[in-house]
Specification:
Blueprint: E1 4-7, E2 11-15, H1 25-29, H2 49-56, E3 64-68, E4 83-86, E5 92-95, E6 98-101, E7 107-110, E8 113-116, H3 131-135
Antiparallel strand pairs: 1-2, 2-3, 4-5, 5-8, 6-7
């Protein structure tokens, strides 16, 4: 996978373009940081470490991630509860740490936020890839 990294010396924000469903949550939350029309599109110096981490934790696809630089204070609290939210005309959002088990016996751990397809059109099932926007899914 193609992973890009942006660091401010305390935290490194990672972006995996193949996972991005272009929900725009990052841009709406921190428009001074996330500027998709620019290169590089993440201006990490435009917000505090705490604000960056809080916004990245809201990424529904997991395309955005982060890790703290070694020896730096970590402000993240580990979530132990899971919350499920139905997005109007969109995916099923699961917040918290989960394990996804596949029919072939394989399993995958997911952290923070995971978006599951509800429209049936995703080419990345069971995960959302944003197809619901193109098909006009209602539900």
């Amino acid at each position: 996978m193609n992973k890009k990294e942006y660091s401010n010396g305390e935290v490194t924000i990672t972006w995996e373009p193949e996972k991005c469903i272009h929900s725009g949550i990052c841009v709406k939350g921190l428009p001074n940081v996330f500027q998709p029309m620019d290169k590089p599109w993440i201006k990490i110096e435009a917000a505090s470490t705490d604000a960056l981490v809080k916004q990245v934790q809201k990424c529904p696809s997991g395309a955005l991630g982060y890790f703290f630089e070694e020896g730096k204070n970590q402000t993240e609290s580990t979530k132990t509860e899971q919350i499920v939210e139905l997005m109007p005309n969109g995916p099923l959002m699961v917040y918290g740490n989960i394990e996804v088990k596949y029919p072939d016996g394989k399993s995958e751990k997911k952290y923070k936020v995971t978006a599951f397809c509800r429209c049936g059109g995703s080419s990345n099932k069971p995960f959302c890839d944003g197809t619901h926007k193109k098909t006009g899914f209602q539900g």
